[in-house]
Design a protein that fits this description.
By secondary structure, this protein is α/β, with parallel strands linked by helices. 27% of the residues lie in helices and 29% in strands.
Length: 276
């Protein structure tokens, strides 16, 4: 029996109001569900994209009792789908937030959480500097969840994409699909986005689903868009060639994962070595 799963990646342009962001996303989620997607993924910062640190920290609370999280759970239940909320800011209680992904099952319950491990502290030049660690507390644990069709889904977020060891760990833990919700900058997106996504798919012999933020946001930030879905052989099987909100749907043949891993077992990891 073949294992085929229809999935969707939702491209958004989130602002600073979580309720407005959800309202904008819902028509796209419904479109994906009507198209038959059983697993739907949204980008990083779906709930709120706001680079004003003080304003964002003042607005964010703990996970328990968060009305927007409950609303996203109801959305998964209403649509009868597995839903990856790419990420939302969750207060840590120590003056920072977690950049946290949530997976909801079709009953609207949280099936998995993942806190972004690798934080975006970079200087791109031209006055473009990011210090995510000033606001976000990094996570410490990888996450794999069993989703529809018993598919094993590994969770990552945006800048994690540059750290191959995390993806290797997810593959070794059995992940057949790896999600990469993102809010890539325009210069890094143009240079590296597709190349890195294809590399991670090839290295792990897993499907990669990468829903992205795109365009000029309410807080003034610009993101790259160009959401992708890549197969275990590194082939792009679905792509949005723009930064506008939209829906990307693809059919995944999950049997491809085992076949690719049998052909080239590099995903198991090579020999340990010492440096020069």
């Amino acid at each position: 029996m073949t294992r085929k799963l229809r999935v969707a990646a939702i491209q958004l342009r989130s602002g600073i109001d979580p309720a407005a962001n959800r309202a904008s996303a819902m028509p796209l989620l419904r479109e994906a569900a009507i198209a038959g997607a059983r697993f739907i993924a949204t980008p990083e910062n779906t709930m709120r994209l706001d680079r004003d640190r003080a304003r964002m920290l003042a607005a964010v609370g703990p996970e328990e009792g968060d009305a927007e999280l409950k609303a996203w759970g109801r959305a998964a239940q209403e649509l009868g789908v597995w839903l990856l909320l790419g990420s939302g800011a969750i207060a840590t209680g120590s003056g920072k937030v977690f950049n946290r992904s949530f997976v909801f099952n079709p009953d609207g319950k949280i099936a998995a959480r993942y806190d972004k491990i690798n934080l975006f502290d970079v200087t791109l030049g031209g006055g473009e500097t990011y210090r995510e660690s000033e606001t976000v507390e990094g996570g410490a644990k990888a996450a794999v969840v069993e989703g529809p069709m018993s598919a094993k889904i590994g969770l990552t977020i945006c800048y994690d994409l540059r750290f191959a060891s995390l993806y290797s760990a997810l593959a070794k833990a059995g992940a057949e699909i790896i999600t990469v919700p993102a809010a890539f900058t325009v210069p890094t997106g143009q240079a590296h986005w597709e190349t890195l996504l294809r590399a991670r798919a090839i290295e792990t012999a897993a499907f990669v689903i990468a829903p992205a933020q795109g365009g000029r946001h309410e807080d003034g930030r610009a993101t790259y868009g160009h959401s992708l879905i890549v197969d275990p052989w590194g082939k792009v099987i679905a792509k949005l060639d723009h930064d506008e909100p939209g829906v990307l749907v693809a059919d995944l043949d999950l049997d491809m994962v085992a076949a690719a891993r049998d052909k080239i077992p590099a995903w198991q990891g090579g020999q340990d070595f010492t440096g020069p």
